[in-house]
Amino acid sequence: MLVTDILSALPLVRGTQDPLFRQLYAQIKDAILRGTLGAGMQLPPTRELARLLSVSRQTVLNAYDQLSAEGYLHGAVGKGTFISDHLAQAAPGPHAARTTQTTQAPMRPLSARGDAYAGAMESVGFHQGKLRPFRVSMPSLDLFPFDVWSRLEGRRWRHPDYHMGYSDPAGYAPLRELLCVYLRASRGVNCTPEQVVITSGSQQGLYLLSQLLLAPGDEVWIESPGYQGASAPLFAAGATVRTVPVTADGMDVAYGIANYPGASMVLATPSHQLPLGVTMSLQRRLELLRWAAARRAWIIEDDYDSEYRYTGPPLASLQSLDRAGCVLYVGTLSKVLFPGLRLGYIVAPPALVEPVVRAKAVMDRHTAIVPQMVLADFMADGHFGRHIRRTREAYGERRVALLDAIASRLGGQVAVGPSDAGLDLALHFLRGHDEATVVARALEQGIETRALAYYANRMATPACAFAPGLLLGFSSLTSAQIRHGVEVLAKVLKAPS
């Protein structure tokens, strides 16, 4: 096929935002890379190609100039324009398949580590679509003072300072100081500002610690059932993940010690367990700390929504009881403020601060600085404390609305789990309903629920049995939405299976 025939058939679309010369440039470049146009071929003169394509000569000139600047073409006055000779080895040949984004397999297999990374979050569900009852673990965005946040952010952009350059990997110093004061007052965390490391959400904190502290094959305890997103970094690190059952007193520490005494790490949510909602008893906390100190094992305390306790003040953290320096406290601001903020933190034992900060620098140099600065202003001006008090009161009212609706419409169908804390509530079936069927039927009617079986981590061993049921989120819903959602669930549960 002649070069003119190839070029005259190039598809150019008029009336789009993409200029014609950019389209022509891209089409010729693609033909060269695919080998349709080979090295040394002479392209037609600009006037001739413009006539063939019914475009202006300037369009062709601009396309040729761009291709020449990038090394695809070369030419000389009086000789013509040619495809560069050095592309002969780069072109895959005239019959090579065109590479597209729909390619089914990579050029070569992923590494074993790459497989672990790519598969670690495979079964983790993500929020999609508009908000519906009963979306889990979702704060109420309608209660957040976005006008205040916008004003504070605008002030930072209007008056940039030296902090707008590369920043400390550990985070914005004023924010670390304010978080330290807050955590000491509200959660009893023993820390200095130097021990606080700002992360891009608690997920990054868990990943960073898994990579830093675990060798492939190290045993780690996790709660079962438990949040799979928190355990995913452990799998990515190549750890041997062991499930430990959860009872009314929290993680069964005695079970873990008896079955996996050589573990190197424990991932726990002692203040409010997801999804069952239980709190680890003081006896088990002390038992876990004694074992970890003797074993020289790390404990990662994932304290994801402890601000929201409705029957008394928030409980003191496990870290506040630690005397051996074995607890790493990980928190998030996604549940208190809004998930899109992607700010979390680690409170590391003094001996680990420097390694954690250095590892953080390897990962992403530092977390975005402007959100940190705005949050520091938000806290310093008192908005943070007011927002927590306001949302705690609102969520408490929504919790009562959910409990009342369940008592009224689902009595005899479900048993209610602990409800004194958090953004969600666990229900356990009393009449042998199939979780998957209930979830599917509810979704057909616009109700979004999460089966408790979802939290059974099938990648870990062994599987732990627990009563079937649902997890319902209530914090982002109005009382009317809650009552409607329970009404729909009542009809689903009463329908023949």
Automatic annotation (TrEMBL):
Presence of the UniProt keyword Transcription in the record: yes
Alphabetical keyword list: Aminotransferase, DNA-binding, Pyridoxal phosphate, Transcription, Transcription regulation, Transferase
Lineage: superkingdom: Bacteria
Record GO terms (molecular function): DNA binding; DNA-binding transcription factor activity; pyridoxal phosphate binding; transaminase activity
Residues in HTH gntR-type domain copies: 18-86
CDD domains, A to Z: AAT_like, WHTH_GntR
Matches recorded under InterPro entries: Aminotransferase_I/II_large (IPR004839), HTH_trans_reg/aminotransferase (IPR051446), PyrdxlP-dep_Trfase (IPR015424), PyrdxlP-dep_Trfase_major (IPR015421), Tscrpt_reg_HTH_GntR (IPR000524), WH-like_DNA-bd_sf (IPR036388), WH_DNA-bd_sf (IPR036390)
SMART domains in the record: HTH_GNTR
Family: In the C-terminal section; belongs to the class-I pyridoxal-phosphate-dependent aminotransferase family.
Protein name from the UniProt record: PLP-dependent aminotransferase family protein
